Amino acid sequence: MKAFVMEGVGETGITEKTRPEPGPADAILKPTKGLICTSDCHTVHGAIGDREDLTLGHEIVGVVDEVGESVTDFDAGDRVAVGAITPDWHSKAAQDGHPSQSNQALGGWKFANVKDGTFAEYAHVNDADGNLAHIPDDVSDHEAAYTADMMSTGFAAAENADVPVGGRVVVFAQGPVGLMATKGAALQGAGEIIAVETVDARQELAVEYGADHVVDFQEGDPVEQIMELTDGEGVDAAIEALGTDRTLQDCIKVVKPGGTVSNVGYHGDGEFRHIPREEWGVGMAEIDIVTDLCPGGRLRIERLLRLLETGRVDPTHMTTHEFDFTEIEEAFEMMDEKANGIIKPLIHFD
Amino acid sequence: MKAFVMEGVGETGITEKTRPEPGPADAILKPTKGLICTSDCHTVHGAIGDREDLTLGHEIVGVVDEVGESVTDFDAGDRVAVGAITPDWHSKAAQDGHPSQSNQALGGWKFANVKDGTFAEYAHVNDADGNLAHIPDDVSDHEAAYTADMMSTGFAAAENADVPVGGRVVVFAQGPVGLMATKGAALQGAGEIIAVETVDARQELAVEYGADHVVDFQEGDPVEQIMELTDGEGVDAAIEALGTDRTLQDCIKVVKPGGTVSNVGYHGDGEFRHIPREEWGVGMAEIDIVTDLCPGGRLRIERLLRLLETGRVDPTHMTTHEFDFTEIEEAFEMMDEKANGIIKPLIHFD
Amino acid sequence: MKAFVMEGVGETGITEKTRPEPGPADAILKPTKGLICTSDCHTVHGAIGDREDLTLGHEIVGVVDEVGESVTDFDAGDRVAVGAITPDWHSKAAQDGHPSQSNQALGGWKFANVKDGTFAEYAHVNDADGNLAHIPDDVSDHEAAYTADMMSTGFAAAENADVPVGGRVVVFAQGPVGLMATKGAALQGAGEIIAVETVDARQELAVEYGADHVVDFQEGDPVEQIMELTDGEGVDAAIEALGTDRTLQDCIKVVKPGGTVSNVGYHGDGEFRHIPREEWGVGMAEIDIVTDLCPGGRLRIERLLRLLETGRVDPTHMTTHEFDFTEIEEAFEMMDEKANGIIKPLIHFD
Amino acid sequence: MKAFVMEGVGETGITEKTRPEPGPADAILKPTKGLICTSDCHTVHGAIGDREDLTLGHEIVGVVDEVGESVTDFDAGDRVAVGAITPDWHSKAAQDGHPSQSNQALGGWKFANVKDGTFAEYAHVNDADGNLAHIPDDVSDHEAAYTADMMSTGFAAAENADVPVGGRVVVFAQGPVGLMATKGAALQGAGEIIAVETVDARQELAVEYGADHVVDFQEGDPVEQIMELTDGEGVDAAIEALGTDRTLQDCIKVVKPGGTVSNVGYHGDGEFRHIPREEWGVGMAEIDIVTDLCPGGRLRIERLLRLLETGRVDPTHMTTHEFDFTEIEEAFEMMDEKANGIIKPLIHFD
Fold this sequence. Notes:
The structure is a homotetramer.
Chain A: E1 2-8, E2 11-16, E3 27-35, H1 38-44, E4 54-55, E5 59-67, E6 79-82, H2 92-95, E7 123-125, H3 128-131, E8 132-134, H4 141-145, H5 147-160, E9 168-172, H6 176-187, E10 192-196, H7 200-208, E11 213-215, H8 222-229, E12 235-240, H9 245-254, E13 255-263, E14 272-276, E15 288-291, H10 298-309, E16 319-324, H11 328-337, E17 344-348
Helix pairs in contact in A: 5-6, 5-10, 8-9
Domain Enoyl reductase (ER) (chains A, B, C, D): 13-343
Family (chains A, B, C, D): Belongs to the zinc-containing alcohol dehydrogenase family.
Organism (chains A, B, C, D): Natrarchaeobius chitinivorans
């Protein structure tokens, strides 16, 4: 079968691989639609170390091609979604409420990390009954592909932010995760949502997904702008959806005493992140800093699919480009360079 | 000044009273708009015992007429909202996170209970700095009046229901509190909302406020209908917004193991409420039954006003009738009899 | 192999059975020590329906005899404990934080319910990596056997009770679960623990496990006694560890507004449990009623074993009698009749 | 009256002041016993800026000398404790569950910060009904003085750490707050407590208050020692009770994915605190960093007093020295220099 792989650091290509086989609890999917994630780009640039011919990709939906003997709830031919994170559900971390950390830090992240990813003619899913979800008839494959990571991660940012009904939330960066965090804040009952972004098209989407104000960091210090918008009070919660030291610091600076900083940004470089001591209330202002890795699993994905089924959100407005699987290298390069105003490229496998 | 009072059990009238005086921390308001609540009717029928010339009403907004000497954040002339519940914020219950229970069960409920209510030319508010909130310029008095009880109680029902993002919620009864619970469930990110109601106009409002399905209990057992809608799984959360034994039982019957029953119904009669033992999982199915009394206080009301300011909800669609203060007895009778399709009558004091 | 079985409603006996075989993820244990639970008695009396030659028992520790091919963390010869509840960890309920409810209400309860229990020469455990725990060298089999149900259930009662540090807790009934709930309340930082019990030996153990007061319900209404002990304030949390309508009602009556009723009692009969409407604050006093089924799983059992290893609790003081496996019928009858001051009988399989 | 004051940065002395007068809701206390806190030393060294003749001290108990006209629950002659933090209970932060942050960051901290402290013949307490607590007969003034800050702060560290029953906790530094955090971890049901400390007497007290292991940071990297003690798993929760960059970093390094870092250390210098990026799981390991300022208020203090009344803790073992009020400058200097093995000096005002 054909697979889009990281051949080594900085190198990608389409190669021929053997179709994977399912273990007793596993499934093999035939992808139909996929989305490229910025973290695929990070991986190719060496963020998680070198890999040889590792299949890329973790955001797809597809059709079940084969299931292992102990799988009970899915059969060949079923139309399914699967999370980017596929936890080991019996691990101690999962029993502790942290399935994304199963067995080790970020241990639920298997696709294109510790095993082949999903950008191939066939993809292997561990624990099919625990990690697949049937796609409702009224939900398109295109929509459903957004549940794997963008919706799950973005919404989690807002869920962890402990937003009071009617509270104020700021979301730093309006890439696809940030946009879904903005939507997530709306779905948590935020009364006022401030999006920080400078790119026009992303600003517009932020408003569509629920932002009441857009702060352009090119037009002045975002901290000052946010404090002004909130009459000096600061926000109840700040969401970091970029992964830089600067934005994390800004989150701490704009949160009021007793508020929450919710990080979903991938912090890919540097030895440290910096907590500004005074704005942190010298360690006593009751500002929590919480983090998450994209929640996965059947229940999570089913609930996200339900939000698509009842029309609570349309994530497809983030799809700026479409490609056939044969053109995936071109899509990848465009995503890597954030060229042509790309936000999210859809890949057709079918 | 004129006041609309409960003269005794079953008797109401407009009478002349002395204008109240503020204590050091208090304020006197001049109401501009008010709403009649079904619980005013319960009170007149003797639900909380006999009262003599007790001024009725707990849902108003108005203008500050006078403040006590230690009030710092409000002045005469300010346009303000006030919650139906005005807690003693330094009470031990408030310190414990239960301000509505200050000093005793339901102790934050003062208006038209342990002191005169708000349906008068002037109304007394304890702890002005803690219990008043400025109404933003963009929010009308009519809208703001809904924060006092309907929005606060209805939304609390959903907040307490511990709704997972994308989860399923059922709301029993679509009176004004139930309608706001439906809206509240949407604001908590529910993926599927089922409203139980038989009156056409209320069914329509339920859909407007976010219901995906309406179950008419006149067309069959609502429990069966809900189980069918959820493929036999049951719901993540059930909200009781009526106050009857039957609906509370039905809530327990439709919640899945691990789910939550959130009660905001006022249970006004009978010695007991009944938990159906088997559906409750013989006491081991991890179904929580939680309750609340309308949250009050400045912070709560400010946050609810913010939701009005940013257009997240328009509660005025529940206003079916309007009256001048001089006509309040007529409004009260209509509310008492639920005549003419009344949902919520607005009273003009100005 | 020999097994102690329920032959039918009201009938028990020791019979010969085929040794179970492990599935790929399972293990077969050879029990060394076991404890008889009152719920075994309920089962024999038909509480969960008729069964034919069902092996009884769910509280044991033992040695691993064989593991399935996909088990990675346990081997033959390992000394292990196992919870009474052995969840399906990838079920949707487990993903939702309710593993004891996997697949259906109480679905994690498999031993002596939907499959053979543990009172046999060999016992089958589903998902060995998820449900077994190694016993530390310093912990005896006798001690470890208490983690399966008594410690897990009793402590859960206190964990769910949301006890504030220094708060007041009452525990109704001081059977082995109630005694561990008393100890659990102490481990949650309760400032004052009131145990309700009439049997001398149990009263003494209650004090040993942390009770500051013992209320004897034979010497007057326990509600009155508790209200007097708390200067009329009531308690922050009430734990129901018996399973009767009366004690559940009493819990609601003694909890203060904003408090919690935590049920772990098995409510085995009657169509309803009754909530006293007025003491429940007419549905608005913010009294939560929560329930649980004994938490299981490797992480839970490891943590309970750690409490034994560091000497935080010695549950063996509850062991009033000891029997060889060959004498188990006698032990069972004594437990069924609560004869000879029995609290908990230890069974030696080795 | 005589008062022990900070005359300016680095300067202290006993001076004559006018006895304070109570506002309507306030009380004047006559201190009987007090404790000097390291933060008094920080203050004198300029940590919160310059002050002129500011009375020092925030840990005392005493007798009510006078109350304002609206105080209902306390009278002259009552023996009372008062928290170091005396919140404005009607402030928005208090309504939001963060009373210590009332009106501004750390705004509940009034004594020896924004008004005179307690080391004087008379001390002023705002909101007497909300901030005083009666001392039970069985509790000595000496014991009760520890509720004001040491017990409240130390226990809060453990409460915020979200310790699972049987979980592992490490507490960095065993000064009086750290020692109470160790005790607090035991009161939260920790299964294994590791104390980090190098001073012998503090190590011994740590064991008395519940530590199972003591790690001496002079004998090797504490992170390595802790990882070895936990078989490489790390701890469920790490408590920072010192206020240095190094210990905060170490907390993050020893917490396992999904765990909690709970800070109560006062971070008094430096522009930043540093989060080690990799051990923080690149922002995705679900490690929460939470902080607190000593909880105050009547309910809190009453609950802490109850723990003393029932003998759950004896904090007086931390008292290494005793002085009369006339000798307070000597006590202060000894505390400032941590001379003579001082842990906590008790001041007799009576």
